[in-house]
Design goal:
about 150 residues; alpha+beta; Nucleoside Triphosphate Pyrophosphohydrolase; four-stranded mixed β-sheet; three-stranded antiparallel β-sheet; 3 helices; 7 strands
């Protein structure tokens, strides 16, 4: 594990074919819901980061070729309460968006040190529940991405 987090991350929208979206409640901030997220480590590609974080946070192992890279990045300010995790002077993160379509009823095993609970919501409800604007905007783009074969 790195001493400080790299300010580059993956956001993974896990959803069913009917566009129910998996959300995870943060353990460190109860009531804050999000999709799978996580920082890039060592020499990982962002696809590898998305695969690792999905497995760590949900127990879902990503089959080769099933993760869709939207080729969409968001740059956002890191919440001041979390900046201590990064090198001095780092204030922004670059997040790459991915999606993963799974069958309805896919079992989820959350990482209790990171999350308190999980739930599946229809995409509009999921977009309204997440705390991050980048997560909300990605969920709102999900129907378009699905219709375009996973590309936005």
């Amino acid at each position: 594990m790195q001493a400080t987090k790299r300010p580059v991350s993956a956001l993974v929208l896990i959803h069913t074919p009917s566009l129910d979206v998996l959300l995870l409640e943060r353990a460190s901030i109860p009531g804050f819901w999000q999709s799978v997220t996580g920082s890039q480590e060592d020499d990982e590609t962002l696809v590898q980061t998305a695969q690792r974080e999905t497995a760590e946070e949900t127990g879902v192992v990503v089959a080769p070729g099933s993760l869709i890279d939207w080729r969409l990045s968001n740059r956002y300010e890191i919440f001041p309460a979390w900046r201590h995790r990064y090198a001095a002077g780092v204030s922004h993160n670059l997040e790459q968006v991915f999606s993963l379509c799974v069958p309805a009823g896919t079992p989820i095993t959350i990482a209790p040190q990171e999350h308190l609970a999980h739930l599946w919501l229809p995409w509009r409800e999921a977009a309204a529940k997440v705390f991050s604007w980048s997560n909300r905007d990605a969920i709102l783009m999900l129907p378009l991405a699905q219709a375009a074969g996973g590309r936005v």
